[in-house]
Amino acid sequence: MPLCTIGYEKRSLDEFIDLLLANGVEVVLDVRETAWSHKPGFSKTAFSAGLQAAGIAYVHLRVAGNPKSLRDSASSHAECLALYREYVEAHPEVMASLTETLRAHGVTHRRIALTCFERHPKDCHRGILAEAWAAGNDSEVLHLGPEGCKRLIPA
Predict the structure, then answer these.
(1) In the beta sheet, which residues pair with residue 4?
(2) CB 56 within 8 Å of CB 26
(3) Cα 133–138–123 angle (5° rounding)?
(4) Among 10, 110, 115, 145, which residue's Cβ finds the most Cβ atoms within 10 Å?
């Protein structure tokens, strides 16, 4: 079962949920440090309720979030992601927590999607998490609907 990722940038909650349902996602794993958003429907309480109403479980894994200190110290989006990659390498508890959470929610037999804001996975720390997890677990990653937004980091 591949691990999925999805970003909610420029999506309504209904569009987001429709994409999850169309791809058989049963669990959304929110990897934002703080599950809060200016975008209606994507803050933790409303987001969880909307997903649950659609039959999709919601889990917030704060430890996998990109720390505010890294985001604040980076001079560019690309640098922020590079700092996060270094952070994950220096903090094995991040990947250990991700692995434990994925296994607890049945990653081998249930479709789980990591989520954060940025639509394209190469513009988001969730892409780093997903690729690292897949490499260490002989799995693959399926990025849901990455097109539709201008890239934050040129390809």
Answers:
(1) 113, 142
(2) yes
(3) 35
(4) 115
